[in-house]
């Protein structure tokens, strides 16, 4: 492992500086030492990382690919260092975080409040919204989002966990319309659709190693998961809900699970932040805090709030 990490910080520094000479100056090394270090890394990897001329340098296609993974590896090391230091350091300053409304209210905000309670010098500014945000323009330290992270060199990401989906319906609806036993049966049922950015979110299951999608049809469409949940409880149709949201209603008998034997789509939960070689301690600590506690929080959520995912 140590050998695999050797040279990554040097490579990242050269890319950030824009040239071997500027990297050498920043690192207080000779240009020759930087060049030899990159050459050793290229030899170990068996690829050329930079196009070199007498006047300029640029990343090769392989170099650009390796750089993306290099940044993630270095960020993991920094997060580990922050985790080790967490019991020794006191957090100060303001942490500005954006998160989905209902997921944030039930699952994320309580954990961040615990972090603030453990560090009285930490101030929280929490924004609950599902809209697309510009982290730099809005001055955000961290964004929590469900789904795959964007492929962007400007953003860093850390996976905090994942959540599954559950197809549900009220007992009254199933008593009137019958219970679907296979995916083909869903065409005969009312589906309460979830709208995200104006598009209906498809329901997805894995059958024989292939993902099968069903786009719900019905007279109700909402961009709010709480509204979908309440409509399902009222008997308007089938609803595809995050398991952490559906669970308390299933336990109270307000909803029943449908097609529970099928493997439904699971969605990753990610923390996103503007990429920087020097991540502030408050942000590192918040990421590590959420990653270590969110899975248990998802399993223990026992109430509902309002608004959307």
From TrEMBL:
GO molecular function terms noted in the UniProt entry: DNA-binding transcription factor activity; sequence-specific DNA binding
Ranges annotated as spanning the membrane = none
Keywords carried by this UniProt record: DNA-binding, Transcription, Transcription regulation
- Give a GO biological-process term: DNA-templated transcription
Q: Name one Pfam family in it.
A: LysR_substrate
User: What PROSITE patterns does this protein map onto?
Assistant: HTH_LYSR (PS50931)
What sequence ranges are listed for the domain HTH lysR-type?
Answer: 1-60
Q: Which family does it belong to?
A: Belongs to the LysR transcriptional regulatory family.
* Matching PANTHER family: HTH-TYPE TRANSCRIPTIONAL ACTIVATOR TTDR-RELATED, HTH-TYPE TRANSCRIPTIONAL REGULATOR
Protein's recorded name: Transcriptional regulator
Q: Which organism is it from?
A: Aeromonas hydrophila subsp. hydrophila (strain ATCC 7966 / DSM 30187 / BCRC 13018 / CCUG 14551 / JCM 1027 / KCTC 2358 / NCIMB 9240 / NCTC 8049)
